Fold this sequence. Notes:
The structure holds two protein chains of two kinds. By secondary structure, chain A is α/β, with parallel strands linked by helices.
Amino acid sequence: MSSSASARAAMAIHPTLPSLPIKLRTENVGMAFLREGKTLPVLEDINLEVGNGEFVCLLGPSGCGKSTLLSAMAGFLRPTSGAILIDGEIVRGADPRRIFVFQERGVFPWLTVEGNIGFGLRKLPSKERAERVNHYIQMVGLEGFGKSYPHELSGGMKQRVEVARALAVNPDVMFLDEPFGALDSITRLVMRSELLRIWQAERKTILFVTHDIDEAVQLADRVVVMSARPGRIQQVVSIDIPHPRDISSPRYLELRDGILGQIGLAHRL
Amino acid sequence: MSELSGMQKTERWLWPIFATALFLLFWRYAVIWTGTRVFPSPIEVKLGLTQLVDGGVLWRDIVDSLRRVAIGYFAAVGLGIPLGLLLGWYPSLNQIVNPVVQILRPISPIAWIPVAIILFGVGDDAAVFLVFLGAFFPIVVTCVDSVSNVPLIYRRAGSNFGLTGPQLLARVVFPAALPQILVGLRIALGIGWLVVVAGEMIAVDSGLGFLIIDSRNSGKRYDLVVGAMLLIGVIGLILDVLFRRIETIKRVRWGFRNES
Ligand SMILES: Nc1ncnc2c1ncn2[C@@H]1O[C@H](COP(=O)(O)OP(=O)(O)O)[C@@H](O)[C@H]1O
Ligand SMILES: [Mg+2]
């Protein structure tokens, strides 16, 4: 395989941001599904280190295994080979310290906005719970909708509910799987900047899956570019532009075009 | 559907009343035209029913039928939902039990009448048992289906927030499955009401089913037969309408959105 040399070169070392201790690390993670009697390799040789408080985007074409990788990191799936470690411990299942945000479809339709956001807080006394719920309702800008049900909300509002529900349990890590993919383009931009604002305030480690190059370059400290199936890490690009990012700056365009080139697309249609 | 719901309030009542009037008119003239001596006209039916109401029997029959349905139905709900949830939650258990359920399910409760009489004798319990049988299997089957239809995302989200086992079932899987379960409960109630009438024709000596068979046997009172039939229809409709109000409760409203 001619690609294996370049893949090996790319996976050699992916330095985390220098000052950050390592929060999550994958060691030779491979994933295969059994389908119609055949094994279908979906991920191969995923080696990645993510620093504490870092914002990492996983970028790759549809079907390359991004969701699979994220689900394995969150503990919903066991990798077929290799290991995933968080805080030095092997991930063995889902855990409230690491919350997975689904593309707005994870909001529970039978609960109100308050019920959803307070879902993970059942062990708190009710007064404290109400305070936390209110705090996060405000943080995501849903004041006045606490008693509303999800089906009465727009897609963007539901996505905010899900983000708030995740934040409310104060996790160290958040996994977001194309969270804004179903939103219209304006709402998507608003949600990106709000996510950045929240991330800067709370400094969670964020793993964010997207197939949108601009989204990745706008948000991430580092962009992990994945190849088509079986998904491998093709390249890791550090986005060394401070927030708020000027998306017409030469550096932004340079990084974006570099990734486009890496994926094999010239930036013209 | 959308056009109907968009109608003015008065129109929504007006047209059904008009249709009913038309039906009664057709009935009346069909009786006249065919010159039948057996089948009663609407007015005769009304007179017959009035007679029953005045005699105080009708209420007793209605209450008896409703009581039997209520007992049998709630027993079916109380046993069927936990069993259905359990089987839906443990697919391997379901694989073992499912063949039995699938064999028993298509047997009409009517076919159970002799067995019911052997087991419970002629009386209330036999009729209640038939209602129970009629409602129980649909409830179990819908529960199993609706649990297995709960999106993986909800289960994952629930377990992500630290829920396991019974907690996950109670706080995520059950509420997620509830709208679909309610559809099954509604159908089961309809079946219970169908079955009680059949049961009462054989196993007991009161209730609307008994009223029908008794009116025919003692004096060929077809005005009362048809009157009881209409009552059964109207009460069945009322039960269904009442049940449908549950669907407007907000906790389950989301599951019925397309029907509003
Ligand atoms: N549970 C599964 N069983 C079999 N194949 C699966 C399963 N989950 C994902 N796949 C396959 O793995 C590949 C990667 O899927 P996914 O991780 O969802 O990709 P992405 O999120 O990058 O679009 C796809 O080809 C998909 O069909
Ligand atoms: Mg995906």
